[in-house]
Amino acid sequence: MGISKAAFLFLLLLSSGKMKGDILDDYSRTDGVWIFTRNKQFYETNDEKECADKCEAERNFTCRAFLFTRKKLQCLTLAENAKMTLTFASTDTVLYEKIIYLMQCKRGIGTDYRGTEAKTQRGIPCQKWAEKIPHKPK
User: Fold this and answer.
1) In angstroms, rounded to a whole number, what is the distance separating the alpha carbons of residues 23 and 37?
2) How many domains, the chain?
3) In angstroms, what CA-CA distances link 107 with 50, 74, 113?
4) Which domain holds residue 81?
């Protein structure tokens, strides 16, 4: 049994980026979790969607997750996710992790890598492929 033509067209539009769902659809949500990380950025935001926007726009590092505190309306964009560092309970916090960085996939020369490594084998922090700072790519 196949899918209808309308359902197929909807999925095609969604996958091509012409039709985008909720920004939080790209994240896995875990209530009551805090993660320990050194690479983070603090922002004041009104809600989780605004925090996700901050994560998407982060320029200081590759944002793999964010923490949102409900009482303080505080957003922390994070270079690490729960697979990469320690976690602990925190009642007022919600951890959102980018689903693509929770997958395990190392292929080719690394240009499509979306795994959990945040440092090179020598300990140098990773940067976005399009960035020229702090390292000039070869």
Assistant:
1) 23
2) 1
3) 33, 36, 7
4) 20-101
CATH classification at residue 25 = 3.50.4.10
- 82 assigned to some structural domain: yes
pLDDT by position in tens, the chain (length 138): 455 555 555 555 555 554 557 899 999 999 999 988 887 889 999 999 999 999 999 988 889 999 999 888 999 999 988 888 889 898 889 999 998 888 755 555 555 565 666 677 777 777 766 777 766 766
Q: Would residue 134 count as lying in a domain?
A: no
Which helix (H) or strand (E) segment holds residue 74: the answer is strand 74-78
Instruction: Tell me how far the alpha carbon of residue 2 is from its chain's centroid.
Output: 33
The answer to whether 24 touches 98, Cβ cutoff 8 Å, is no
What are residue 21's DSSP bridge partners? none
Cβ distance 77 to 47 under 8 Å? no
| pTM exceeding the 0.70 threshold for the entire prediction | no
How long, in residues, is the chain? 138
